Amino acid sequence: MVDQQEYERISMELLPTLYKIGYSMLKNTHDTQDAIQQALMKSWEKRYTVRTGGYKVFLTRVVINECYNIQRHYMRVVPSELAYIPSNTSPDYRELYEAIDTLPNDLRLPLILKYLDAHSEKEAAKILGIPVTTFKNRLHRARKNLSKLLDREVVFE
User: With contact defined as beta carbons under 8 Å apart, do 59 and 49 qualify?
Assistant: First the structure.
C-alpha cells in the first residue's frame, strides 16, 4: 500500500522519466501531459492496491497504457522533435537520438528505458509487461537497426 506522502514523492521523482516515455510515444507535448495526468489520477485511485516497492513500475506501465489509449483515439502520427535530446548535444549524438526516434515503439521503448533512464533489464521488462528474454531480444534488434540506420556499430555504455 502506498500512502499519500510516498505517492507524491515517487510521482514527482518519476515525472522526467514518464515525460520521456510519453513523448517518445506520442510526439506531442499536450498529449503527453494528458497521458501523464490520466495516469496519475488512475494510479492515485489504485494506490491502496499496489505494494510500495512496485509503485514505480505500476505508474510507468499506466503511463504507457494511457499513451496507447491516446494513440488509438487519434490514430495518427504527430511529427515533432525529440523531447529527450539534451540541448547541449553534440551533432554525433543528435544523429543517434534522431535514429532512435525512427524505431517503432516496441524497439524504441526498451532503448529509452535501459540506456536513457538507466532501468535494469528486469525492471524495464516488467514496465513493458514482457519477459526479460523478449526485452533482451528487442534491445538487440533495436541496436542492430540503429547500426544499419547509422551505417556503423552502436555501442551503449
Answer: no
What is the C-alpha separation between 134 and 139, in angstroms, rounded?
Answer: 9
Instruction: Tell which residue, 44, 45, 21, has the closest CA to residue 31.
Output: 21
The predicted model scores a pTM of: 0.56
CB 105 within 8 A of CB 55: no
Q: Which three cell numbers stand for residue 157?
A: 555504455
Domains and CATH numbers, the chain: 1-83 (1.10.1740), 86-157 (1.10.10.10)
| Tens-digit pLDDT profile for residues 42-99 | 988 887 887 777 888 888 999 999 998 888 776 544 444 445 555 555 666 777 778 8
